[in-house]
């Protein structure tokens, strides 16, 4: 078992890696376009994960679950990555990362509708707060940035909805399948399915070294290595604590965007982002007011 200091270092490393993914997606999408960036990112990650799939996973189980694994792969990586790459051509990395942080809200909403997991009153308040924050942030950005910014915001929300559906799909159809098998097999499946749009939308002019370097970082660092670190944190710290990395990712993305791309962080963006994160904290029970109230009521 790792020490608390070592676990904290892993949390920071994972947040830093996932926060940098928005920077690298932007650098890649500028020259490769959305579909080719997403396809290459997943393809590179799939090649890195393939040995683990072949050596450490039950291939018979993978074959039996091939259809849901392909579906989860497209909903958890293929479609969202392409949507984010499109969005990052029109809005900042910081704004994209804040909208991405709302993924647990969509996960809770989909689980409520599909799996009948009704939230308690505090989780319901968290969902309401989170979606109010999303609405205000989106409305503000559309009013400032115009039509292209509006489509980009919708693309981000579509990506977070895909994550929410993928989470419920995983729980419903992939129960008992080890996380490593889900990750590696779904990446390989998504890479195969995205091969056609990756080639079909290949840029007419060969991208430069910066774009290629960004894609290597996306595939190896932000996807393959980051997923393995994430599942290791789940095993060592538990899923609830591992999910707290969600709150740190936007901070790193905002920092990278400000330092390396000269992006501005407005007070409105920061304020609406905090409302979204508060909603996420309540809806995922990271903050539990009932427990605090019970402690206060004890004699």
Description of the structure:
By secondary structure, this protein is mainly alpha-helical. 83% of the residues lie in helices and 0% in strands. The protein has 15 helices and no strands. It has helices at residues 4-32, 34-56, 59-64, 66-87, 93-100, 103-114, 121-145, 147-173, 179-193, 195-200, 209-237, 239-242, 245-260, 267-283, 289-297. Helix 1 (4-32) packs antiparallel against helix 11 and helix 7 (121-145) packs antiparallel against helix 8 (147-173).
**Separation, N- and C-terminal Cα atoms:** 37 Å
- Quickly give the structural class: mainly alpha
Mind summarizing the main beta sheet?
none
Helicity range of the residues? over 70%
The poorly predicted ranges are none
Report the total helices: 15
Broad shape: globular
Q: Gyration radius, to the nearest Å?
A: 19 Å
Q: In what range is the share of β-strand residues?
A: under 5%
Q: Quick check: average pLDDT?
A: 90
N-to-C order of helices and strands: HHHHHHHHHHHHHHH
The number of distinct β-strands equals 0
Features:
299 residues, mainly alpha, 0% strand
Write the layout of secondary structure elements.
Layout: H1 4-32, H2 34-56, H3 59-64, H4 66-87, H5 93-100, H6 103-114, H7 121-145, H8 147-173, H9 179-193, H10 195-200, H11 209-237, H12 239-242, H13 245-260, H14 267-283, H15 289-297
Outline:
The protein is mainly alpha-helical. Helix content is 83%, strand content 0%.
């Amino acid at each position: 078992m790792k020490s608390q200091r070592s676990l904290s270092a892993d949390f920071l490393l994972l947040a830093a890696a996932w926060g940098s993914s928005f920077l690298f997606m932007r650098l890649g999408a500028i020259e490769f376009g959305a579909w080719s960036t997403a396809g290459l990112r997943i393809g590179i990650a799939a090649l890195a994960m393939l040995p683990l799939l072949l050596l450490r996973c039950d291939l018979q189980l993978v074959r039996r679950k091939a259809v849901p694994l392909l579906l989860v792969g497209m909903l958890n990586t293929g479609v969202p990555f392409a949507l984010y790459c499109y969005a990052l051509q029109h809005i900042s990395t910081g704004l994209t990362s804040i909208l991405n942080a709302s993924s647990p809200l969509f996960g809770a909403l989909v689980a409520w509708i599909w799996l009948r997991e009704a939230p308690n009153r505090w989780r319901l308040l968290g969902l309401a707060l989170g979606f109010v924050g999303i609405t205000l942030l989106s409305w503000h950005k559309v009013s400032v940035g115009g039509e292209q910014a509006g489509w980009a915001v919708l693309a981000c929300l579509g990506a977070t909805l895909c994550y929410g559906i993928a989470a419920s799909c995983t729980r419903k159809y992939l129960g008992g399948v080890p996380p490593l098998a889900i990750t590696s097999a779904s990446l390989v499946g998504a890479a195969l399915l995205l091969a056609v749009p990756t080639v079909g939308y290949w840029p007419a002019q060969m991208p430069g070294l910066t774009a290629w370097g960004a894609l290597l970082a996306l595939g190896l660092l932000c996807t393959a290595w980051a997923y393995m670190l994430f599942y290791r944190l789940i095993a060592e710290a538990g899923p609830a604590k591992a999910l707290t990395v969600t709150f740190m990712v936007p901070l790193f993305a905002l920092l990278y965007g400000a330092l390396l791309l000269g992006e501005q962080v407005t007070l409105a963006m920061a304020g609406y982002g905090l409302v979204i994160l508060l909603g996420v904290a309540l809806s995922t029970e990271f903050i539990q007011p009932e427990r605090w109230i019970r402690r206060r009521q004890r004699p």
